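Every protein is a chain of amino acids, and every chain bends into a shape of its own. The protein below has been through that process, and both of its lines are reproduced in full.
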Amino acid sequence: MLLRRGWDVALPVQAMLEGAPLESWGAAVPHDLTGRGPMHVLATARGELVAKELRRGGLLGGVARRTFLDPRRGWREAAAAETLSARGVATPAVVAARSRRVAPGLYRLDVATERLPAAGDLLAMLRAPQPDLRLLASAAGLTLRRAHDAGLRHRDLNAKNLLVPANAARNGLIVLDLDRCTVGKPLAREERVEALARMARSLVKRGVLPLAEAGRSEDIALRQRAALAACRDFFRAYGSVNGQMPAKLLGECVATLQRTLAWHARGWTARGTSRETAR
């Protein structure tokens, strides 16, 4: 088990080493957080924690959802969080990471991070009544620029993994879910385009970002114009890359997005997603 210095006085360390369940690490706090598995918000003498057992997604999640070959995955998340924080990217510090062997070569992994105050995740804020799209877009652009400059290669950086703090307009958003990321050199331009297009694709998939299409209702047309203005604000906040102006970067990301949407849209429609969202 890895334990952040100074937290030993606030956590039941011996019980944790002996396999105590996550919910016994502190006092339960009501919450509405969701993830691949149960999420626990726990009050301790040093503050609140968000604790979870790591779960697999994708194809492997169907056969080995709760077990991993690498017992040090939580260790790498802790190291990534420390590096990103030092490079100016807001992210929760890992307080504890535990691996438990359940069979030869197989482990279950638990991670607890500090809970940072926030109004909600970016997806929830975008879906709220009358969201401030331009503020949220600018904050997201600033955050992703810092993350890419800091060398963050995040396999699933979407709107659910970005928290919106009260000071988002000035300081940007909080990046979550680092257990599968790497941190190295600043991203190359091609990597940035792919990452930004992947973020846009997740917003289209969730019906937040409507794409232009003829014959839509006036309400949808208004949403499209608002989304386009927000996208421009996002790329202005993100800034130029290797002399490439934000408007050109936006065009390149849109082209990359369009090349991948048709394949993904078939999958979303097959799972019952509406035609409008799939587009």
Q: What stands out?
A: The radius of gyration is 20 Å. The longest helix spans residues 246-270. Confidence is low (pLDDT under 50) at residues 274-279. Residues 172 and 184 are 21 Å apart (CA to CA).
